Amino acid sequence: MFLSEVHIYPVKSLRGIIPRSARVERRGLGNDRRWMLVGDDNRFLTQREFPKMAAISTALNSEDLLLGCEGREIRVPLQLEAADVQQVEVWGDLSAAEISSPVVNEWLSEVLGTRCRLVRMPDETRRPVNADYAVRADDHVSFADGFPFLLIGEASLGELNSRLRSPVPMDRFRPNLVVSGTDAFAEDSWKKIRIGETVFHVVKGCGRCVITTIDQAKGVKTGVEPLRTLAEFRTFERKGAKRILFGQNLIAETVGAEVSVGDAVEVLV
Question: What is the model's pTM?
Answer without folding.
Answer: 0.97
